[in-house]
Fold:
Amino acid sequence: MSGVKMTPELVAEHGLTGDEYNTVLSIMGREPNITELGIFSVMWSEHCSYKSSRFWLKTLPTTGPQVIQGPGENAGVVDIGEGQAAVFKIESHNHPSYIEPYQGAATGVGGILRDVFTMGARPIANLNALRFGDPGNAKTRHLVDGVVAGIGGYGNCIGVPTVAGEVNFHPAYNGNCLVNAMTVGLADSDNIFYSKASGIGNPVVYVGSKTGRDGIHGATMASAEFSDQTEEKRPTVQVGDPFTEKLLLEACLELMSTDAIVSIQDMGAAGLTSSSVEMADKGGVGIRLDLDKVPMREEGMTPYELMLSESQERMLMVLKPGREDEARAIFEKWELDFAVIGEVTTSGNLELFWYGETVGDIPVKPLVEASPMYERPWEPTPAQAEIDPDSLPDAGKMTNCLKDILSSPDMCSRRWIWEQYDHLIRGETLQIPGGDAAVVRIPETSKALATTVDCTPRYCLADPEQGGRQAVAECWRNMVATGAKPLALTNNMNFGNPERPKIMGQFVGAIKGMAAAAKTLDFPVVSGNVSLYNETEGKAILPTPVIGGVGLLKDHTKMATLAFKAEDETILLLGE
Amino acid sequence: MKATVTITLKSGVLDPQGKAIEHALGALGFQGVNDVRQGKVIEIDLDAADPTTAEALVKDMCGKLLANPVIEDYSIEISA
Amino acid sequence: MKATVTITLKSGVLDPQGKAIEHALGALGFQGVNDVRQGKVIEIDLDAADPTTAEALVKDMCGKLLANPVIEDYSIEISA
Amino acid sequence: MRAAVIVFPGTNREKDIAEALERASGKKAQFVWHGDSDLPDVDLIVVPGGFSYGDYLRCGAMAGNSPVMRAVKQKADAGVRVLGVCNGFQILTETGLLPGVLMRNAQLKFICKKATLTVQNSDSDFSSAYSEGQRVVFPVAHNEGNYFADDATLDRLEGEDRVVFRYADADGTVNKAGNINGSQRNIAGILNEKRNVLGMMPHPENATDPAQGGTDGLGLFKSLAEVLQ
Ligand SMILES: Nc1ncnc2c1ncn2[C@@H]1O[C@H](COP(=O)(O)OP(=O)(O)O)[C@@H](O)[C@H]1O
Structure:
């Protein structure tokens, strides 16, 4: 391995530019080896470093008296009173879902669930926001079928109700569907878990499934534009195992009810690399990993593969000293792998060993801090000409228009989809899909949470700023319509190639609109995800900034519902 | 003509079902089981002039519908 | 030793998955497909003194876990 | 009523059923982890819904052949009441406590919705609070709920009055339109010969609280609480 020669081609294959590679050289003071190159590549990918979006994300309002944890952790946390907190985030799994719809969508759900229960929360609701191409295409039908089955397959099995979502169709998504999954969890506000590693000499522990050669380079794939060769290249897509994740969920929550954990981080995209680097960076410490101790699924795996694997259903933890046996007993009861694979050090470096031999040594702080941030050039989206109503073709009779609207793929009933999701499990679902926002009761209290995901991409295309605003406002209204007070939002920014000023302009516009609306409504952003390069052969998707919201009903018996209740009641129209 | 298509997960791809079966066999007291993988078998009764035509046809079906090359391998057997 | 267990639905038991595949093949323009049935294949890598012992062992596994006799038939193949 | 709820790896509706039992009887049920050696001395054993062992291989196959289910079988033979819901029903058929098998839904999709059923038979410890022919609404949430058995078995089930619930249309008529998953003769729930074991696909436990949009399921748990007080 150490013998692999660094060449410009190899560097380019790892998605690093010449400038970026020069920074690597200056950080390392030498040529990196292949494992180290892989780590830089993953950490500096768009997916992990947010290099195109970070500058703009900083402009979002993220604070408020209700916010316990804003962006920067696995999920956002808001106070919901009586010592309880709601923990939530949204995440995209767009590219994998296009290649293998069932598994791509399933592992998307698995990933966001882990983000939430890593924080100490029990997941109580799942949501999903989906965008597909022309419904007339056979490919679209195949994707819809697979994605819906995958979301249901994972959520139903793990036992978290899928209570809300949205679906749109547009030819702009023909070559690039969007699968955004959101999870809401419930935690005690004094028992939230963070990723900051601390305590020199504390054991670093690996739990969950074994590591295989899954999705090596998935994180870089999520940051690269699709071409017609992508389907040829057939990158490995991970297979989800919701059964193991259910065990992992229960085992983690069981261990979290003791005080043995110092910090914990899920291994999502970029697995062991991003989890160990983030934990070390947040704690300002070093981490030593003995990679030969990682539970492996296959023979002959290399340090490079172990650091880059995206195998699912895994977690990394730092435990308090001497608590290993107690933790091991819990994970073994749940029939999961448990291995002490390293320790927290003073070195400030990520030190990797393979049977005692050093196979990687990277200073953590520069690896994180020197990660590229680009203020990419952008062009504002030109204002659309106003449409003259007389220029429109005669739509004919009102009733025909109504029929057209009701039967259009974007407006018709979504029952076919949500009946494939178990939306009732846990017995707390007070408003099922089909209404404004879903409402889920908090056990043993009079409280309930309202939650919804919203975006109207065609508005965002016409005017990204208004579209961003509108998405926030719609999300807010949907919750208010149930009687909830909106607390905070999470967002999933799905856009095309940010290296094109036009696309970057859409992104900037949407952020501006979102920020303005969130500020005005006192509706801060506590978590989110950015998915760029959603293009096929130079054709971008519609700008799609999906907003997920969570609101609180203090007394669920006062909840409002959609349906007209009785004859002769007055109908009021509110608003402008 | 009868075609039997056997579809298995590519080696290296996680097979949660196989693992679970392996585990359950162990729990039932079966020893010496080193590995279990689960796949699908699809039997197709079809009209075709000869085995070669049948095989080509079924191969096309695999590429278009029956298997996903990203995670699955397949093999085809034709019998009369 | 490697055992391949093929589990199929008993004839007479309705196979909606097979029917759905048949239908989808038709929709893709494949002609002459008379019938499709879907089953499972389970590959077991196991230690056994000889093929006969292996077969007996796997038969026992089928009886105890792998197949449900109410609706399924199975066949076993042993290879080295 | 002393009730035990068995929890397998992958079980996920144990909370729902325990709450329903408490709502009907005022008593808390006890959770029993599948690996625990002894079953507690109880009047009712519940095998709840979920995805035991991920539903891998066949739903309920691995749990059905597990040591704890052998113990449950012994208890059932000794007359203890056993209720299996959804995955629990699948497990009971795999264990051999109930005849038949639950196959993949005819439409090949997971289905979660409120289903209308008719109570075929109120002459059991599980259904005495209902009246015969009563129309009830219970949610269903399953992928493999399509009940299958050979004709002789079906005839016997009917002849011995062992079908407790059938799927029906919204008006409570047992017909093809109301058969949500393709089950033979619209069967949604059946008893064993000794009538102390009930397996059913729908989830009465998710219809036991007005906030869940209905309380039709309460009757089942009240029936049990009544005989087992
Ligand atoms: N659009 C956004 N708005 C606000 N916060 C964001 C956004 N995108 C990402 N974040 C935050 O950046 C951090 C890293 O996100 P991500 O890489 O998706 O996490 P992970 O890898 O753990 O899934 C998270 O704290 C997330 O909430």
